[in-house]
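SAMPLE LOG
Freezer: B-3
Tube label: C17
Construct: single chain, 87 aa
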Amino acid sequence: MGGAGARLARRKAAEALTGCVSGSIVPFTCHDRLPVPAGPARFDEPTLYVNAARLDLSVALAAEDHRTPAGPKAVPVTEPPGGAAAL
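STRUCTURE (predicted):
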């Protein structure tokens, strides 16, 4: 995604961009300012377990069903042990 670092969004901003209550944000986006990054290992999993835009419900989603509509971009979301210097 081109950044050198990241942090979690403030609750108010996350809820405004997603239209979901914090804790129930779905793995899709309906906002052009909110891309969907995904760790590369996510593409190795056949099933994702995700929030269903509710605090009391999660769903199992076939990974391929997420790939098409969400268009997640595979990007490293963690650093290797030892930090960036280990790269």
